[in-house]
Amino acid sequence: MSVSLPERAGSIVLTGIPAVAGVVAAPVVRPVERVRIETASENIAKSDRAPEAERLRVAAATVAQRLRHRATRADGAAAEVLSANAAMAVDRGWLGVAEGSIATGTPAPAATTAAIEQFAAMFTRLGGRMAERVTDLYDIRDRVVAELTGAPEPGITLPDRPSILLATDLAPADTAGLDPNLIVGLATSLGGPTSHTAIIARQLGIPCLVAVTGLDEVPVGAQVLLDATTGRVTVHPDPDADATAAADHRAAAARAAAWSGPGATADGHRVDILANVQDGASARAARRTPAAGIGLFRTELCFLDRESEPSIEEQAATYREVLDAYPDAKVVIRTLDAGSDKPLRFAPHPDEANPALGVRGIRTALLDDGLLDRQLDAIALAAADRDTAPWVMAPMISTAAEAESFAAKARARALTPGIMIEVPAAALLAETLLAHVDFASIGTNDLAQYTMAADRMSPHLATLTDPWQPAVLHLVARTAAAGHALAKPIGVCGEAAADPLLACILTGLGITSLSAAAPALSPVGATLATIPLETCRRAAQSVLATSNPAEARAAARTALGMDSSQPAEIE
Ligand code: PEP
Ligand code: MG
């Protein structure tokens, strides 16, 4: 955990994990406290129970309807979250439990609270992405109970002037409704860099810090400087530093808006800047940005709600939509990364105490490789009339034998095989594994999780899963060197690639492509375009010599000539 240090007389610096880069200064606002509604639990008369259950169903449907309506006015990740929450509001699981307690005499608000509590406990036990949805569940509870009791719908009241929103955590439905002109920065004391809040903030372009220690003490109205590039919130900042930092950020934002690719350093060393997508719609949206292709198509996200395996033709139609968005460019399709926090109901998942270390990604093929074979058939079918073979890569590769077997299956279908490097074992033996395939892409989200033995979704361990951890960057360096030795491209497609400062370091380490959510790409490309390759290389070496993420960031800023006068915080 970071230790907060008073930085200058009168100012306090709090540290957190940068989720969406940017620097802004503004006064603090906080979400309106959610009214805790007393849910009286006296028994209701038998004759009132059926109408009470109906009242609950109507309230849940009303909440779902409002969320769906907001989804139609949003797009991308915000729309997806709002639609998913709308579906959760009328989910038969919790509603069934609540109706069961109403049938025994519990009033609807108390029945709602108890049912949601039961599901929240179950999601927390499951961990990972399921645990993240607990915030959504509580948000639905508050909305339904407010509807039942006639209280105002909970949420964030937008301020009348540009402000920085500080919160313990935010419901994704609240984040999705933020106006970036009024909420110019966001910081939470919980949440990780891959939380829904961070994903939506990235899409809205709101600079965002998560896992900030000491945030709860900052009073409403206090002026703060939120630096989501270095990971600091300065309370009562020096007014000059305040203005300079914000002006620097505005200049950087203008540079990013003007950047149109292709990705290259200031001296013309090419680095492909690519988009991460999960379906045809996001691929078409990426096409409207400077993304030169797709660096990661997360195919499992297309089928999370499926009970049974989609047919080869159905899969092919889904993949073709993404290929069609980039007919002549590089498209890297990842085979199903089922398991752990992304279980697919039609993939083999044994009951496991520790699913992140269990049967996920390529390991599902150990139990049944028919699923992988059929997916590769579908990709080949989707690509049948393309001039260039799509690249396919397997997630969670940890041995040379897995790489070899995957490559044989891909080549048999005229696909270009690659592997993801997400497990330290794969990075350590990168040269051996790469001998079997044509490329690799480093998934820094999982590589950090497995290197640091820290759940990537844990809000308490966000410092450990920070991709700036030098141990993680040493494994990136090792993999890039292996790629260089064998003349094979090595990309990065984890959240690390969305950080403009880290993008320069990755380039200096020898990474040949960077793939991230499309809205993050312009700041990355624009920053890289200002730095010569040799400077990136020197900066990368100085980062590798550090011992913690804060030092690593500071070393990078100094070596890249982006130094702010601020000292590094203590880890
Ligand atoms: C990663 O692990 O960095 C990655 C890109 O894969 P995912 O986030 O889908 O696990
Ligand atoms: Mg991964």
TrEMBL record:
- InterPro entries, per database record: PEP-util_enz_mobile_dom, PEP-utilizing_PTS_enzyme, PEP_util_AS, PEP_util_C, Phosphohistidine_dom_sf, PTS_EI, PTS_EIN, PtsI_HPr-bd_sf
Write down the required cofactor(s). Answer: Mg(2+)
Gene3D superfamilies under this entry?
Answer: Phosphoenolpyruvate-binding domains (3.20.20.60), Phosphohistidine domain (3.50.30.10), PtsI, HPr-binding domain (1.10.274.10)
Assign the protein's first listed, main location to one coarse class: cytoplasm
- Reactions mediated catalytically: L-histidyl-[protein] + phosphoenolpyruvate = N(pros)-phospho-L-histidyl-[protein] + pyruvate
- Which intervals hold domain PEP-utilising enzyme C-terminal? 262-528
Asked if Metal-binding is a keyword of the record, the answer is yes
GO MF, any single term: kinase activity
Domain Phosphotransferase system enzyme I N-terminal span(s) in chain numbering = 15-133
Which SUPFAM superfamilies does the record match to this protein? Enzyme I of the PEP:sugar phosphotransferase system HPr-binding (sub)domain (SSF47831), Phosphoenolpyruvate/pyruvate domain (SSF51621), Phosphohistidine domain (SSF52009)
Annotated positions binding phosphoenolpyruvate: R298, R334, N445, D446, R456
Q: Where in the cell is it found?
A: Cytoplasm
- Kindly list the GO CC terms recorded for this protein: cytoplasm
One biological process term from GO is:
phosphoenolpyruvate-dependent sugar phosphotransferase system
The residues responsible for catalysis, as annotated, are: H196 (tele-phosphohistidine intermediate), C493 (proton donor)
Write down the EC number. Answer: 2.7.3.9
Start and end residues of each PEP-utilising enzyme mobile domain: 161-231
Transmembrane helix listed as a keyword: no
Q: Which family does it belong to?
A: Belongs to the PEP-utilizing enzyme family.
This one is known as: Phosphoenolpyruvate-protein phosphotransferase
Query: Which organism encodes this protein?
Result: Nocardia otitidiscaviarum
Q: Which gene encodes it?
A: ptsI_3
